Amino acid sequence: MSESTSAPSAPEVAAVGLPSVPGTESAPRNRNDFLYYGLRNKKLIFGVSLEFILVLAAIIGPMLAKNPPLQTTNLPLQHPNGKLWLGTDLTGYDLYSQLTNGLRESYLIGALGAAFASVVGMALGFIAGWRGGWVDEVLQMITNVIVMIPSLVLLIVIGSYLSSRSILFEGAFIGLTTWPWVARAVRAQTFTLRSREYVDLARLSGKRPVAIIVKEIAPNMASYLFLTVVLLFGSSMLIASSYDFLGLGPSGVVSIGWILNQAENGSALLYHLWWWFVPPVAVLTAMVAALLIANVGLDEVFNPKLRDQ
Amino acid sequence: MSVNVQNLSVAYRSRRGDVTAVDNVSFSLTDGEIMGLAGESGSGKSTLGNSLVYLDPRMKATGGKVTVDGKDLPIADNNAMRRKRMTEVSLVPQYAMSALTPTRKIGRLISDLLKSHHIKNRDEVLAELNRRLALIGLKEDVLSKYSFELSGGMRQRVTIIMSSLLNPSLLVADEVTSALDVSTQRAVGEMLLEFRDRGYIKSAIAITHDLSILAQIADSIAIMYAGRLAERAPTSVIVDNPLHPYTQALLASLPEVGVRHEQVTLTGIPGRPPSLVNPPSGCRFRARCPFAFDKCTQTPPFEEIKPGHMVACWKVSQEQHTVTAGVGQEQA
Amino acid sequence: MRRYLTRKLITYVLAFFVGVTLDWALPHLMPGNPIQGMLSKYDVGSNASYSALYQQFSSEFGLNVPLWQQYLNFWHGVLTGNLGVSIYENPASVTSVVFQAMPYTLALLVPAILLSYSLGNRLGAAAARRKFLDNWVLPVGYIFQAIPYAGLALLVPYLFGSLWHLFPTSLGYGENLIPTFDWTFIASLLDHWFLPFLTVFIVSLGGWAIGMRNLVIYELENDSSRYLRALGASERVVRGYAYRNASLPQLSGLALQLGVVIGGNIVTEIAFQYPGLGNLIYKAISNEDYFLLQGIFIFIVIGVLLANFIIDLVIISVDPRTRLSMQGATA
């Protein structure tokens, strides 16, 4: 299998990406085609709708909470009821409030991580793919090395020395350890598209490399890039939840991983406080699953070969 | 007749409805005949050729009948066709360069195919395989190689050998020379002729857009335009005396050896082939034809103008009828 | 093949180098001072004794020499297998503590990876050809892939432990047992092993299944499959070839996923208090046992590199292109 058919992928969800060739001639070339297929693709619709609902919940949810997430209601161990929709925990914190805040924070961290990874990954991937030669070799080596270092352990080592961490730090760390996935994909596509005729034409007509990258290559890769970023977003959220669960998350931030950490430490299992951890897990799973499914649907829209007709 | 195609139509599904790629095509081949099938991209020639062997799931046969050696060829029935593939009808695909799987040695690939066809005397077949390889100058060790170890020309030839190994009655060769350099093109062309002469293949359809190669190897040529046959005649007739305006324009647009561009400007055919989603009524070449007149809004029949020479054109048809009428008058 | 291997070896050496350097450098770049941290736990009376102890520890842990020398000493330690003494398990050496925990982690990781990979691949391939199977493999696969490790690490023990009382939910073996090679102990080992194993297994399974499904679908549609069909090969033969071709990118994917699985493993071990390396990390942090922490990191890095190497060897033996052609497969 040639490189140009490598799947868009991201660490935690690496296997989901479909091996599709970007810029295929029969891909939707205009908005109408895209809308036509897009609106008819069940996976895309389902994924986008679900994600939309969740984002809405992240925005509106906290506003509907009756108590701040870290302020005790003095009513510990309450089952979900009419007043406290998701009950309370050991200390009496309002779990609905925590979950909706957690939604927000998890989205934020995920977006940050994906943003960092995308920027770095795309830049380095373009350079490697465009320049080729030894620049490419060196960058590839760096990429391979980073992928091999287990990032969770690294963060544990780093995190144990830091007294406090910020959201920015976590986002940057996730970004800096997952950019290789983006870079790999971008590099492969740049290689493929670099040798296409229209690029040669642009070169012959004297366009500068940056202009060529922006005007000729990027639009053709846009779909592929978008898919990669979507996957990365989901992957970042999952990674962040692991970090937060281990207590390595940003200090004082209520994220879904943090809630799970609290549940674990608060013996939620022992006391059968299922409402403490089941809703957060379900919600986070939905957040990521919706992205994955939408991603697959999107891939089918961009690549006619994959559609079941 | 070795191969007989009657009123064959093939369509494929698209977002905008069914697109008829092959529209009511009829022709026949005698034993030992190599017919060239030529036309522009999108003319339907590839669809036509491929449909005789393997009908892509996205396509469907919407009408017509095909017989090979007197027996019906059930092209629409995938299961029934499986037995006949490689044994009665076979294909050298357009994608021959990537047709051989990269993870199996060639020899293993061939023996797996033989097993699939429940060939009893496999050793004999393999011995014959070795003979044929030697015939075209490929060493026996090709069988223990992987496809990526072979050059393009070798891959093309190996594919032809594989596809014709079980001596099919009809071999459809889709653009077998397109990806090759000129000397390899010649070698492949000669290979087809040799195989036909030795009876490895009974008859063949060579699909290409390159008329010059057909002039070398084909006994007859069929010209296709926008899903329909425009003209069909023995090669010498097509080359020396084409009747259909499209064929004439095609030949005129070929560069001649020795002619410099200062002397003669290359002319193409102005305009583009019509879309097959909503094809124009009547003759489809009408819009680009210098001889079009009012009758052309009706579909011209594919009729035998002279023995062995079929043309679908009103102008030709009319001229022919005038001649026969004139002759008839003289004789009367 | 030679070029492929050379490239890989250079990457391994580089990765090891970077790993060791990071491991050594990070504690020194971080705020805080390990010796101070250690001493803060002891209730040291006077300033004099404090500074004396400080000197003592500094020299004992080799921190009283210039940085570059510390760096070289560290390398020396790594290469001779002497990673110092664990603070937490004083006077046991870091290496011995790690080796004690390693079998547990391996017992978790190796079966989970191998089983989820092979089962996932088979499921995926089956789903690629049977529409009705596909209809539920796909959504279930996505859900499994989307579940955070932390989530499963809570759900699994809750369901199988707290709720249904099928398996124990913490530790490596029964609290009242002493490690011996008798059946009771082994049974207890397995009993405690099952849920953590299940957790790591489930998350990976979904990913492999979906990945394989997609790869097989792609292979079933590509030119070599079309040619086989055009020559009348049975669908079974076509499928077999597709599966074979699809396995190669999956193998490469396995190497890439190792870092992720290790992360998940750590989360699982910590949640289950399973006495493997992950749990050891946790203990090392709580006890501010930096040397143990550094030692564990080295071992994990070595483990990952080794596993990568093994997978590379498997790829070479399975993929003729890597074996024979001048250009290696791109990783």
Describe the structure.
The complex is a heterotrimer of chains A (about 300), B (about 325) and C (about 325). Chain A contains ten helices and no strands. By secondary structure, chain A is an all-alpha fold. Chain A is globular, with a radius of gyration of 22 Å. Chain B contains ten helices and twelve strands. Chain B is an alpha/beta fold and about 325 residues long. An eight-stranded mixed beta sheet of chain B has the order 6-7-8-3-9-10-12-11, sandwiched between helices. Chain B has a four-stranded antiparallel beta sheet with strand order 2-1-4-5, covered by helices on one side. Chain C is built from 13 helices and no strands. Mean pLDDT of chain C is about 80; it is low at about 325-330. The relative contact order of chain C is 0.14. The longest helix of chain C has about 40 residues, at about 185-220. The chains are: A mainly alpha (about 300), B alpha/beta (about 325), C mainly alpha (about 325).
Write the layout of secondary structure elements.
The complex is a heterotrimer of chains A (309), B (332) and C (331).
Chain A: H1 31-40, H2 42-64, H3 95-131, H4 133-148, H5 151-161, H6 167-194, H7 197-204, H8 209-245, H9 256-265, H10 274-302
Chain B: E1 3-14, E2 17-29, E3 34-39, H1 45-51, E4 59-68, E5 71-72, H2 78-84, E6 89-92, H3 106-116, H4 122-135, H5 152-164, E7 170-174, H6 182-197, E8 203-208, H7 211-217, E9 220-225, E10 228-234, H8 235-240, H9 245-252, E11 303-306, E12 309-311, H10 314-331
Parallel strand pairs in B: 3-8, 3-9, 6-7, 7-8
Antiparallel strand pairs in B: 1-2, 1-4, 4-5, 9-10, 10-12, 11-12
Chain C: H1 2-29, H2 34-41, H3 47-60, H4 67-80, H5 94-129, H6 131-146, H7 149-163, H8 183-221, H9 223-230, H10 235-272, H11 277-286, H12 290-318, H13 320-324
Helix pairs in contact in C: 1-4, 1-12, 5-6, 5-8, 5-10, 5-12, 6-8, 7-8, 7-10, 8-10, 10-11, 10-12, 11-12
